Protein backbone atom coordinates (compact mmCIF):
# COMPACT_ATOMS: atom_id res chain seq x y z
CA UNK A 1 0.00 0.00 0.00
CA UNK A 2 1.49 3.37 -0.85
CA UNK A 3 1.86 6.12 1.74
CA UNK A 4 -0.98 8.16 0.28
CA UNK A 5 -3.51 5.34 0.58
CA UNK A 6 -2.24 4.43 4.07
CA UNK A 7 -2.69 8.04 5.21
CA UNK A 8 -6.15 8.23 3.69
CA UNK A 9 -7.39 5.20 5.57
CA UNK A 10 -6.18 6.31 8.99
CA UNK A 11 -8.79 6.22 11.77
CA UNK A 12 -8.63 9.21 14.10
CA UNK A 13 -10.12 8.90 17.58
CA UNK A 14 -10.54 11.91 19.86
CA UNK A 15 -10.64 11.58 23.64
CA UNK A 16 -12.47 14.77 24.61
CA UNK A 17 -14.22 16.87 22.01
CA UNK A 18 -13.96 20.53 23.01
CA UNK A 19 -12.61 23.63 21.23
CA UNK A 20 -9.38 22.18 19.92
CA UNK A 21 -10.80 18.80 18.90
CA UNK A 22 -13.52 20.61 16.92
CA UNK A 23 -10.87 22.74 15.20
CA UNK A 24 -8.68 19.72 14.37
CA UNK A 25 -11.68 17.82 13.04
CA UNK A 26 -12.71 20.81 10.86
CA UNK A 27 -9.17 21.00 9.51
CA UNK A 28 -8.95 17.27 8.81
CA UNK A 29 -12.43 16.67 7.43
CA UNK A 30 -11.43 17.90 3.95
CA UNK A 31 -8.88 15.06 3.75
CA UNK A 32 -10.33 12.24 1.69
CA UNK A 33 -11.25 8.85 3.16
CA UNK A 34 -10.35 9.48 6.78
CA UNK A 35 -12.52 8.06 9.53
CA UNK A 36 -13.28 9.75 12.82
CA UNK A 37 -14.74 8.87 16.19
CA UNK A 38 -14.76 10.43 19.65
CA UNK A 39 -15.23 9.70 23.31
CA UNK A 40 -16.26 12.48 25.73
CA UNK A 41 -18.39 12.90 28.83
CA UNK A 42 -21.38 13.86 26.68
CA UNK A 43 -22.51 13.42 23.07
CA UNK A 44 -21.96 16.44 20.77
CA UNK A 45 -23.89 17.82 17.79
CA UNK A 46 -21.36 16.63 15.23
CA UNK A 47 -21.68 14.15 12.39
CA UNK A 48 -19.09 11.63 13.61
CA UNK A 49 -19.62 8.50 15.73
CA UNK A 50 -19.69 8.89 19.51
CA UNK A 51 -18.18 5.99 21.46
CA UNK A 52 -19.73 5.70 24.88
CA UNK A 53 -16.83 3.68 26.26
CA UNK A 54 -13.17 4.56 25.94
CA UNK A 55 -12.38 0.93 25.15
CA UNK A 56 -14.49 1.11 21.96
CA UNK A 57 -12.71 4.25 20.80
CA UNK A 58 -9.29 2.72 21.45
CA UNK A 59 -10.26 -0.38 19.47
CA UNK A 60 -11.45 1.81 16.58
CA UNK A 61 -8.58 4.32 16.34
CA UNK A 62 -5.10 4.17 14.81
CA UNK A 63 -4.34 7.68 16.06
CA UNK A 64 -5.62 8.64 19.50
CA UNK A 65 -5.82 12.37 20.17
CA UNK A 66 -5.77 13.40 23.86
CA UNK A 67 -8.05 16.45 23.69
CA UNK A 68 -8.62 17.14 27.38
CA UNK A 69 -7.48 19.89 29.74
CA UNK A 70 -4.16 19.33 31.54
CA UNK A 71 -5.90 18.75 34.88
CA UNK A 72 -7.98 15.93 33.33
CA UNK A 73 -5.07 14.16 31.66
CA UNK A 74 -4.03 12.04 34.63
CA UNK A 75 -7.52 10.53 34.94
CA UNK A 76 -7.70 9.89 31.19
CA UNK A 77 -4.28 8.21 31.07
CA UNK A 78 -5.15 6.09 34.12
CA UNK A 79 -8.17 4.82 32.16
CA UNK A 80 -6.28 4.54 28.88
CA UNK A 81 -3.55 2.31 30.28
CA UNK A 82 -6.17 -0.36 30.97
CA UNK A 83 -6.68 -0.76 27.21
CA UNK A 84 -4.46 -2.14 24.46
CA UNK A 85 -2.84 0.85 22.78
CA UNK A 86 0.07 -1.10 21.26
CA UNK A 87 0.85 -0.02 17.68
CA UNK A 88 -1.28 3.10 17.99
CA UNK A 89 -0.06 6.68 17.90
CA UNK A 90 -0.94 8.87 20.86
CA UNK A 91 -1.11 12.56 19.93
CA UNK A 92 -1.10 15.10 22.73
CA UNK A 93 -1.62 18.86 22.42
CA UNK A 94 -1.97 19.10 26.22
CA UNK A 95 -0.10 22.21 27.37
CA UNK A 96 2.72 21.64 29.83
CA UNK A 97 2.60 17.82 29.74
CA UNK A 98 5.79 16.35 28.28
CA UNK A 99 6.05 13.02 26.48
CA UNK A 100 7.75 11.51 29.55
CA UNK A 101 4.57 12.22 31.55
CA UNK A 102 2.49 10.17 29.11
CA UNK A 103 5.12 7.41 29.05
CA UNK A 104 4.79 7.12 32.83
CA UNK A 105 1.27 5.79 32.28
CA UNK A 106 1.52 4.03 28.92
CA UNK A 107 5.16 2.89 28.95
CA UNK A 108 8.19 3.94 26.95
CA UNK A 109 7.23 1.61 24.10
CA UNK A 110 4.15 3.68 23.36
CA UNK A 111 4.52 5.90 20.30
CA UNK A 112 3.74 9.47 21.39
CA UNK A 113 3.63 12.64 19.32
CA UNK A 114 3.39 15.89 21.27
CA UNK A 115 2.07 18.89 19.37
CA UNK A 116 1.33 22.55 20.03
CA UNK A 117 -1.15 23.81 17.42
CA UNK A 118 -3.49 26.79 17.57
CA UNK A 119 -7.18 27.08 16.73
CA UNK A 120 -6.38 28.26 13.17
CA UNK A 121 -5.92 24.54 12.46
CA UNK A 122 -9.70 24.64 11.72
CA UNK A 123 -8.99 26.62 8.53
CA UNK A 124 -5.67 24.87 7.94
CA UNK A 125 -3.55 27.85 8.98
CA UNK A 126 -2.09 26.66 12.27
CA UNK A 127 1.60 26.93 13.09
CA UNK A 128 2.22 23.64 14.89
CA UNK A 129 5.25 22.47 16.86
CA UNK A 130 5.82 18.70 16.84
CA UNK A 131 8.00 16.41 19.00
CA UNK A 132 8.04 12.63 19.30
CA UNK A 133 9.71 9.78 21.16
CA UNK A 134 9.95 7.90 17.83
CA UNK A 135 11.83 10.23 15.48
CA UNK A 136 11.97 8.91 11.94
CA UNK A 137 9.18 6.33 12.35
CA UNK A 138 6.73 6.37 9.44
CA UNK A 139 3.59 6.98 11.55
CA UNK A 140 5.18 10.02 13.21
CA UNK A 141 6.40 11.32 9.84
CA UNK A 142 2.92 10.83 8.30
CA UNK A 143 1.37 12.75 11.15
CA UNK A 144 3.91 15.52 10.70
CA UNK A 145 3.04 15.69 6.98
CA UNK A 146 -0.65 15.81 7.82
CA UNK A 147 -0.11 18.68 10.30
CA UNK A 148 1.92 20.41 7.59
CA UNK A 149 -1.19 20.36 5.41
CA UNK A 150 -3.08 22.08 8.25
CA UNK A 151 -0.76 25.10 8.02
CA UNK A 152 2.93 24.92 8.88
CA UNK A 153 4.47 22.20 11.06
CA UNK A 154 7.93 22.27 12.59
CA UNK A 155 9.89 19.66 14.57
CA UNK A 156 10.93 21.19 17.89
CA UNK A 157 12.74 19.99 21.01
CA UNK A 158 10.26 19.79 23.87
CA UNK A 159 12.35 22.36 25.79
CA UNK A 160 11.22 24.91 23.17
CA UNK A 161 7.48 24.33 23.64
CA UNK A 162 7.02 27.09 26.26
CA UNK A 163 8.50 29.82 24.06
CA UNK A 164 6.67 28.42 21.04
CA UNK A 165 3.37 28.58 22.94
CA UNK A 166 3.96 32.24 23.88
CA UNK A 167 4.73 33.26 20.27
CA UNK A 168 2.36 31.10 18.21
CA UNK A 169 -0.29 30.16 20.79
CA UNK A 170 -0.74 33.57 22.44
CA UNK A 171 0.66 35.49 19.44
CA UNK A 172 -2.70 36.14 17.73
CA UNK A 173 -3.95 37.83 20.93
CA UNK A 174 -0.82 40.01 21.10
CA UNK A 175 -1.12 41.07 17.46
CA UNK A 176 -4.81 41.87 18.03
CA UNK A 177 -3.89 43.92 21.13
CA UNK A 178 -1.57 45.94 18.88
CA UNK A 179 -4.36 46.42 16.34
CA UNK A 180 -6.63 47.50 19.20
CA UNK A 181 -4.20 50.40 19.87
CA UNK A 182 -4.62 51.49 16.22
CA UNK A 183 -8.37 51.28 16.66
CA UNK A 184 -8.36 53.41 19.81
CA UNK A 185 -6.37 56.07 17.95
CA UNK A 186 -8.83 55.97 15.06
CA UNK A 187 -11.75 56.86 17.38
CA UNK A 188 -10.87 60.46 16.44
CA UNK A 189 -12.38 59.80 12.98
CA UNK A 190 -15.79 59.36 14.58
CA UNK A 191 -16.60 56.39 12.33
CA UNK A 192 -18.76 53.40 13.39
CA UNK A 193 -16.81 50.67 15.20
CA UNK A 194 -17.58 47.89 12.62
CA UNK A 195 -16.25 50.15 9.84
CA UNK A 196 -13.06 50.77 11.83
CA UNK A 197 -12.68 46.99 12.21
CA UNK A 198 -13.11 46.55 8.45
CA UNK A 199 -10.47 49.19 7.71
CA UNK A 200 -8.04 47.58 10.16
CA UNK A 201 -8.74 44.16 8.69
CA UNK A 202 -7.85 45.49 5.24
CA UNK A 203 -4.67 47.02 6.68
CA UNK A 204 -3.58 43.74 8.29
CA UNK A 205 -4.54 41.66 5.23
CA UNK A 206 -2.67 44.07 2.97
CA UNK A 207 0.37 43.89 5.25
CA UNK A 208 0.21 40.08 5.31
CA UNK A 209 0.00 39.97 1.50
CA UNK A 210 2.95 42.38 1.23
CA UNK A 211 4.94 40.13 3.60
CA UNK A 212 3.82 36.93 1.82
CA UNK A 213 4.70 38.15 -1.68
CA UNK A 214 8.13 39.48 -0.70
CA UNK A 215 9.43 37.38 2.17
CA UNK A 216 11.63 35.18 0.01
CA UNK A 217 13.46 38.15 -1.49
CA UNK A 218 13.60 40.62 1.39
CA UNK A 219 14.21 40.56 5.13
CA UNK A 220 11.60 42.14 7.42
CA UNK A 221 14.03 45.02 7.99
CA UNK A 222 14.17 45.62 4.21
CA UNK A 223 10.38 45.45 3.91
CA UNK A 224 10.13 48.16 6.58
CA UNK A 225 12.77 50.23 4.76
CA UNK A 226 10.74 49.99 1.52
CA UNK A 227 7.83 51.80 3.22
CA UNK A 228 10.05 54.41 4.86
CA UNK A 229 11.01 57.63 3.05
CA UNK A 230 13.88 59.52 4.58
CA UNK A 231 12.55 62.27 6.83
CA UNK A 232 8.91 61.20 6.25
CA UNK A 233 6.05 60.17 8.53
CA UNK A 234 6.98 56.47 8.79
CA UNK A 235 10.55 57.47 9.62
CA UNK A 236 9.28 59.74 12.43
CA UNK A 237 7.17 56.94 13.92
CA UNK A 238 9.96 54.38 13.63
CA UNK A 239 12.47 56.75 15.24
CA UNK A 240 10.14 57.02 18.24
CA UNK A 241 9.65 53.22 18.24
CA UNK A 242 13.43 52.72 18.43
CA UNK A 243 14.23 55.56 20.86
CA UNK A 244 11.65 54.26 23.30
CA UNK A 245 12.84 50.66 22.74
CA UNK A 246 9.27 49.55 22.16
CA UNK A 247 10.55 46.33 20.55
CA UNK A 248 12.39 45.48 23.78
CA UNK A 249 9.24 46.19 25.80
CA UNK A 250 7.25 43.98 23.47
CA UNK A 251 9.77 41.18 24.04
CA UNK A 252 8.77 41.52 27.70
CA UNK A 253 5.23 40.52 26.71
CA UNK A 254 6.53 37.32 25.09
CA UNK A 255 8.81 36.62 28.08
CA UNK A 256 5.88 37.00 30.49
CA UNK A 257 3.80 34.53 28.47
CA UNK A 258 6.69 32.07 28.25
CA UNK A 259 7.32 32.33 32.01
CA UNK A 260 3.66 31.60 32.68
CA UNK A 261 3.79 28.59 30.37
CA UNK A 262 6.85 27.30 32.26
CA UNK A 263 5.10 27.79 35.62
CA UNK A 264 2.03 25.96 34.36
CA UNK A 265 4.21 23.11 33.07
CA UNK A 266 5.72 22.77 36.56
CA UNK A 267 2.42 23.04 38.45
CA UNK A 268 0.07 21.43 35.93
CA UNK A 269 -2.47 24.19 36.70
CA UNK A 270 -3.37 25.31 33.17
N1 LIG B 1 -7.93 25.55 22.74
C1 LIG B 1 -6.75 25.82 22.20
O1 LIG B 1 -6.58 26.82 21.46
C2 LIG B 1 -5.57 24.93 22.43
C3 LIG B 1 -4.37 25.14 21.72
C4 LIG B 1 -3.29 24.29 21.95
C5 LIG B 1 -3.39 23.26 22.89
N2 LIG B 1 -4.56 23.09 23.57
C6 LIG B 1 -4.66 21.98 24.53
O2 LIG B 1 -5.70 21.14 24.08
C7 LIG B 1 -6.37 20.55 25.18
C8 LIG B 1 -7.88 20.69 24.99
O3 LIG B 1 -8.21 22.06 25.02
P1 LIG B 1 -9.68 22.57 24.65
O4 LIG B 1 -9.61 24.04 24.60
O5 LIG B 1 -10.20 21.82 23.48
O6 LIG B 1 -10.49 22.09 25.97
P2 LIG B 1 -12.07 21.98 26.16
O7 LIG B 1 -12.78 22.80 25.13
O8 LIG B 1 -12.33 22.28 27.60
O9 LIG B 1 -12.40 20.44 25.88
C9 LIG B 1 -12.05 19.44 26.78
C10 LIG B 1 -12.82 18.18 26.44
O10 LIG B 1 -12.39 17.19 27.38
C11 LIG B 1 -13.50 16.37 27.66
N3 LIG B 1 -13.27 15.66 28.93
C12 LIG B 1 -12.88 16.15 30.11
N4 LIG B 1 -12.79 15.17 31.04
C13 LIG B 1 -13.15 14.04 30.41
C14 LIG B 1 -13.27 12.69 30.81
N5 LIG B 1 -13.00 12.30 32.06
N6 LIG B 1 -13.66 11.78 29.90
C15 LIG B 1 -13.93 12.14 28.63
N7 LIG B 1 -13.83 13.42 28.16
C16 LIG B 1 -13.46 14.34 29.06
C17 LIG B 1 -14.67 17.32 27.73
O11 LIG B 1 -15.84 16.58 27.52
P3 LIG B 1 -17.32 17.22 27.68
O12 LIG B 1 -17.41 18.26 26.61
O13 LIG B 1 -18.22 16.09 27.40
O14 LIG B 1 -17.40 17.80 29.05
C18 LIG B 1 -14.32 18.28 26.56
O15 LIG B 1 -14.92 17.82 25.38
C19 LIG B 1 -5.84 21.25 26.44
O16 LIG B 1 -5.02 20.37 27.15
C20 LIG B 1 -5.02 22.43 25.93
O17 LIG B 1 -3.86 22.63 26.71
C21 LIG B 1 -5.65 23.88 23.35
Provide the structure class.
alpha/beta
The CATH topology of the largest domain: Rossmann fold
The biggest sheet amounts to:
7 strands, mixed
Domain count: the total is 2
Radius of gyration: 22 Å
Number of helices: 12
Per CATH, the class of the largest domain reads Alpha Beta
Q: What's the helical proportion of residues?
A: 40-55%
- Principal-axes geometry comes out as elongated
Beta-strand portion reads: 5-15%
Give me the strand/helix succession: HEHEHEHEHEEHEHHHHHH
Bound molecules: NADP nicotinamide-adenine-dinucleotide phosphate
Which second-level CATH architecture of the largest domain applies? 3-Layer(aba) Sandwich
Number of strands: 7
Extract low-pLDDT stretches: 1-7
Distance between the termini: 42 Å
Order of strands in the sheet with most strands:
2-1-3-4-5-6-7
Mean pLDDT: 93
Name of the CATH homologous superfamily of the largest domain: NAD(P)-binding Rossmann-like Domain
Amino acid sequence: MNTFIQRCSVKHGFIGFGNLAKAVYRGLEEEKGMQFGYFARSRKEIPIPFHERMEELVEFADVIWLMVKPQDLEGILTQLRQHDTRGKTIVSPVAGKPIAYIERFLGKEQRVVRIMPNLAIAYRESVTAVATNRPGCSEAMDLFDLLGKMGKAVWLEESGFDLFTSVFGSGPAFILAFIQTFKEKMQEFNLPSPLLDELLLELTQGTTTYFTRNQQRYSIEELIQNITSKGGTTQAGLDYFREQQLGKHFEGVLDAARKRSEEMSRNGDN
